[in-house]
C-alpha cells in the first residue's frame, strides 16, 4: 500500500471514531469546568444512543433523509434532561460527584435496556435504515492530495464535531458565559462575590454536558453501530473522559486527544496490512491505542490539573 | 447517638427509596411488581442453592469493592479494578494449571500469584501517578483494555494451544469444596468467602489501626501535610495502588480458583470491576460498608436472574434499582436533612 | 454406556406421563436477538414448541439470558431445577458451565452448541461451519472482479477458524488467483471495529467481504451500505453469517453462510422427546444434515445463475464426501479441490 | 447625620450560635471606620451580612438613609458596596483583568473585549495609584499585587464604600505603607472605608473612628483621635493587655544550625536562595526579616527537607542534614511551625488528636510494631490540648472545625513538645488576635530559655523586633545584614529589606 492509500483509509476512519468522543469529551469539559465531575458521560452517551435509535426507527418514514439529524437533536434533548439527575444530585443534594456519576451510568444502561424490552419485547433494537452515510465534501474534495485524504469517504458528523469543538473553545474562552463558567469551577466563592449564580452556572454546565453526551451517543449509534443493544456503548464514555483529561480540559486539546484515540484505533486495524507491522502478533496492535495513550501522557503531556473546585460543593457561607 | 442512628438509617432509607421507585417503574410499565419481588427473593434466598450462589457472587464483589475503596481512601480513583481482576484471574489459573503441588502450597501459591498479578497491574498507574503525575483515571482505563487483550492472548497462545479456555485448575489449587456445595445443593459456593471476609478485616486493620494506614490516610487527605510530616507521598501512592490491585487480583482468584476453575478468552469486560466501583461507593469506602453493599449487590444480581423466568419482568429492572440505590445513597445529604427535621419535630 | 444412562433416565422419569416434554435454553450475554446463533437457536426452540403444542414458560419452552459469564452456571442450574427436560447452553463460552452442571444434575439432559462436553447426559452440537463458508467462498470468488476478497473474524477460536479455513478453501477452489485478506477484530460485539476493517478492505480494493464476527459484522454491512449509497454504481458485496442476513442490506448482501442452529436445536429436542437423546455424543451438523447451508443468492448479483449452479455442484460434492472441506488452517494448507 | 451606611441592631446566628448579637455600625461619608475585635468576634460575619453573603436574622441596613435588603452580592454592588475579603476571592488561573471584569464583562458582539477591558483597568489603576499589570496571571503576582486587584474589583464596580477585611495580615511592611496611602487616596476620591484589622497601630494611623465588638456583641464606637492603643486593646479583649513581651537577656550557647553557601533554585531555575549563610545558636531566637518572595520560604523548606537544595551545606549540631528526607531531619531535632497551617501543618480531616502525632505516630508509645495505640495518642493529645490551651470540643473533633488560632496553638504544642534542638517558626502569628499572639510569643521565648535554638520568620517587623535576639535581613536570597534588635529601628530594617546596604540604611535612619 502506498502512503497515500494508507492515509486515505486511516484519516476518515480516525475521524469517524473520533467524532462521538469529541462531542462527549466537550460535554465533559462543560461540566468539569463548572466544577462538577462527570463520570456519568458513559451513561449520557447510552441515553443519547438509545434515544437516537428509537427515534430513528420510529420516525424514519416521516423524516426520510433528515431522520438521523433530527434524531441527534432528540438525543441531545434526552441527554440534557437525563443529566438533570446528576445536576440535582451533585449540586442540590450535595452528592459526591463520582458516586452520582456512577449511579447515572448504572441507571442509563439499566433503564434503556429495560425500555428496549418493554417497547420491542426483545433485547436489542432493529437496525436503522437511515444512518449517517459516507460523503465527499463538495468543493474541498477536489483539493489535490488533501482533498483525497480529508474530504473523501468521510462523514458530516466528523466535521461537525470539529466545528463544535472550535465553537466550544470560543464559548469557553472568549465569552462572558465561558469566563463565568470557568470561575465557578475554579473558585465558586469568588464567583459568588462577583454576583454570579454558582448553582445556575453549574446546572448549565451539567445540562450542556448531557446535551453533548447525548449527541455523542446519537452520533455513535447512527454512524457506527446502527442499532441499540447492551454493547452499543461499552466504554466510549470513559474514553471520552480520558480524552478530556488528556486534553487538559481544553476543548481543542480534548478534540486532539479524541482524534489521537481514533488514530491509534485505526492504526491497530490497518496495521496488520502494513508491511512493516505485518509480522507483529495481533495482540500488540490491539493494545497499541491504549499503550500509546499511556506513553503519550507519561512522555510529553505530563501532569494535568483539573479545575480547582471540581468535585466540591459550593455551600454559601462555608469556608 | 441520634447522629449515629441516622448514619445507619440513611442507607436503609436509600435502599427502600430505590425499591419504591423501582416498583413505581414496574407498575407504570404494566408489570406485576409483587411477582417480580417474589421472584427476586426466591432467586436470591428461596433455596439453599440460591443462597450459595448469592454468597458466591458476593465474594468477588467484596474484594473488587475493597480494591476501589482502598485506593479511594488514599485519594486515588481506581477504575482499573476490571483489568487487575482479569490478570489476577489468569495468574491464579495459570499457577493452578501448571504445577502439581500439595494443596497446602499450591492453593496459597495460586492465590499469591493472583494478588501479585493484580498488584503489578495496579503498580503501573500508581507509579506513573507518583513519578510523572499522570492522572490515574486514564491510565487505569487504558490498563483495563490492555489486560483484556493480553490475557486473551496468553490464554490462547501461551497457556493453551489456540484454545479459548484453559484446563481446569488442579484440585490442589481449587477453592471449591464438596462440603460447601453439598450444603447449598450444588451451588458454586467456595472457600473464597472466607478470604473475602479476611480481606475486609485486613483493610480495616491496615487503614485504621496501623502506622502504615495512618500514612495512607494522611496522604489521602493532604499530601502536603503528609510530606511535611516526613511521610513519603509517592511511596504511599504506589503502595495504595498495589494493595488495591492485590485485592482486585484476589477477586480474580475467586473466579479462577472458585467459581469457574478455569479462564476463558473474553469478548468483553466481566463487569465485576465496574460493579466494584458501585459497591465501594455505596459502602462509603469503608470495609464494613463494602461488606454490606456487596451482599446487597450479590443478592440483587443473582436474584434478578430469576425474574424473567418466574415473573416475566426484565432483569434490567434490578440494574435500575441498584442505580437508584446508589443515587439515593449519594444524595444522603437530603435524606439527612429530612431525618433531622423529622427528629427535631419529634423532640418538640 | 451412554445409551444405557439414557434408558435409565427414561424409566426413572416414566412415571409422570401427563407432564409434557419441556425444553429451555441459556443464551450468553448476547440475548435471543443477536442476529446470530442465539437468535437462531431461539427460533428453533420456538418452532419446536409450537409444533409440539407447548407454551412459553415453565413446563413448555423458554430461555434465560445471561448478564455475565458467571451467570451461565446459575442459569443452567435454575432451568434444570425448574424441571425443564432438556436445557441448551448456547455457545462455546458455556462449555465449562454445562460440564459442571451436568455432573451435578445427572438426571437432567443438557445440550451444548459449538463445543464438546463429555458427559453422559450432555449432547454436544457441532457444526461443519467450513462447509457453509466454503460455499460462501465459492460465491465470493465468482462475484469478485478485483480478485480481492476480505474475511473478518470475530475473536480467534476453533469455530471461527472453521469459517476462515472453509471460506479460503472455497475461494481457492473457484478462483485460485483470488486472494483473501483475513483480519480478526478481537471482539464479537464491536461494530465499529468491523466497520473500520471493512472500510480498509474495500478501500484497498476488495469487493466482496465475508464476516464471521457476530455483532462486529454489523459494521461490515454499515460500511458496504454507505459505500453503495454514495456511489450506487460501485460493485461491492458483503456476505453474512449464521442466519440469512439479506435484510441487512438488500443491495449489498450477496448471500449468507447459514449455520442452522435452529435445525440442530429442533433435531436434538425431537430426539430427546422421542427418547433418543444423543447423550454423551457429538452431534455433527453439516450440509448433509441440513445443519449448515448457504442462503439464497442476491437477485442483483451479476452472475446469479452461474453461482447457483456452482454452489449446487460443490454442495453435491461435499455431501457425497467427494471432497472434504478443511476445518483448520493446517488442513487448509494441504487442501486441494481436485 | 450624614451616614452612608447604617447597620442597626444586626443579629446573625449559625444554627443556634450567635455570631452577631445586636451590633450597630454607622459609617460616615468620607471616613475610615475601623472594626476591631478578637478572632471569632464576628467581624467578618458582620461584613458578610453587609455584602449580601449572609442574611441577618434581625436588624436593619440603611444605605444613605434608605432601608435596603441586601440578599446577594449583586445588590451590594449596585448599592455601591465593595468588599476586599480576608481570604482573597481571586481565580488563580485568570488574568488580573479577567478577575476584575468577571460578572461585568465588556463585550463586543458577544465576545469579551479584553483590549477595552484592559484599557479600563489601566485607567482606574492609574487614577487610584494602584499599579498592576492587567495581563498578568494572578498566580504569578505577589500577594500585595493580588490585594490591589481586589481593590480594583470594587472600584471597577463603582463602589462608593469599600470594606477591607484584615487587609494587612498578608502584607509586607512596605506594602502596608502603600496600602495606607491607597486608602487615603480613596478617601480623597470621595469613598468611604470600613477597615477590619488586628493591628492597633494601623487604626491609630489611618482610621477616623473605631467600632469594637467582643464575642459577637457591640462594645461601642470611639473617635480614634480621642483614644490610644492600650484603651482599644482592653476594649477589645475585656482586660489589660501587655504589648512588649517580657523576656530576659539571651544566653546564646553553641551553634545549632549552620547554613553555608546555600543555593536553592525555584521551578524556573532561578537561584531563589543565593549563596546564603546563616547560623543560629542554642538559647537564642534569630528573626529573619525580609519582604515576601526573597527566599524565606525556600530557605525554610530547604532546611526542613521539603525542597531540594542545589548546593551548599546545612549542618545541625555539626551533622550535615542537607537534602535528607523530612523524616530524617525532623528526627535529628528540627521542629517546624509551617507558614501555611492548612496546607502543611494539619491534616484537616483528621481528628485534632491524631494531628498531634503527625510525625511521631510511628514511635513508641503511639505505636508498636506498626500498630497504632490510640489510647496513648489521645492521652498525649489531651495533655497538649490543655497545656497549650487549644479550644476544641474534644480531642476527637476534626482539625477542620477549629479556628485558625486554635489550630495554630495545636501545631505549636505538637512541635514544641517534641523538644527539638531547632524550632523553626514561619509566620506563627499570622491573622491571630493579640491574645493568641501573646501566648505564642511566650512559648517561643520559653523554648529559647530552655536552651533551644529558634528561627523565626515573619513579615511583621513588630514581631521580629519584639521577639528576636538577633535579626537577619534577607534580600534576594542572601542574608544581607545581621542586626541587633536593640540597636535598630523599623525604618532601618525596612530599608535593609528593600536592598539598601547597611551603611546607607544607617545614614537614612539617622537622618
Ligand atoms: N459559616 C459559619 N458557620 C457557623 N459558624 C460560623 C460561620 N462563620 C462564622 N461562624 C461563627 O461566627 C463566629 C464569628 O466568626 P467571624 O469569622 O465573623 O469572626 P472574625 O471576627 O472575623 O474573626 P477573625 O478575626 O478570626 O477573622 C465564629 O467564632 C464562628 O463560631
Ligand atoms: N462551616 C463552618 N461551620 C462551623 N463553624 C465554622 C465554619 N467555618 C468556620 N467556622 C468557625 O469559624 C471560626 C473562625 O473561622 P476562621 O477560619 O475565620 O478562623 P480564623 O481565626 O479567621 O482563621 P484564619 O487565620 O485561617 O483566617 C472558627 O471557630 C470555626 O470553627
Ligand atoms: Mg474574619
Ligand atoms: Mg482570621
UniProtKB/TrEMBL annotation, chain A:
One Pfam family, short name: BPD_transp_2
Single GO MF descriptor: transmembrane transporter activity
Cited InterPro entries: ABC_BtuC-like (IPR037294), ABC_transp_permease (IPR001851)
Coiled coil: none
Domain of life: Bacteria
Transmembrane segment boundaries: 6-27, 39-60, 66-90, 102-120, 155-173, 203-222, 258-277, 283-302
GO CC term (a single one): plasma membrane
Compartments, as annotated in UniProt: Cell membrane
Membrane topology designation: Multi-pass membrane protein
Gene3D superfamilies attached to this UniProt entry: ABC transporter involved in vitamin B12 uptake, BtuC
Protein name: Sugar ABC transporter permease
From TrEMBL, chain B:
Keyword Transmembrane helix applies: yes
Keywords: Cell membrane, Membrane, Transmembrane, Transmembrane helix
Entries under Pfam families matching the protein: BPD_transp_2
Gene Ontology annotations for the cellular component aspect, listed alphabetically: plasma membrane
Topology within the bilayer: Multi-pass membrane protein
Location relative to the cell: Cell membrane
The organism's place on the tree of life at top rank: Bacteria
A GO term, aspect molecular function: transmembrane transporter activity
Record-annotated membrane-spanning stretches: 12-38, 58-76, 83-99, 105-124, 189-207, 237-265, 277-300, 320-339
Protein's recorded name: Branched-chain amino acid ABC transporter permease
Organism of this sequence: Neobacillus cucumis
From TrEMBL, chain D:
Subcellular location: Cell membrane
Family the UniProt entry places it in: Belongs to the ABC transporter superfamily.
SUPFAM superfamilies in the cross-refs: P-loop containing nucleoside triphosphate hydrolases
Name the UniProt record assigns to this protein: Heme ABC transporter ATP-binding protein
Keywords: ATP-binding, Cell membrane, Membrane, Nucleotide-binding, Repeat, Translocase, Transport
Predominant localisation class: membrane
Residue span(s) of domain ABC transporter: 5-240, 257-501
Entries under Pfam families matching the protein: ABC_tran
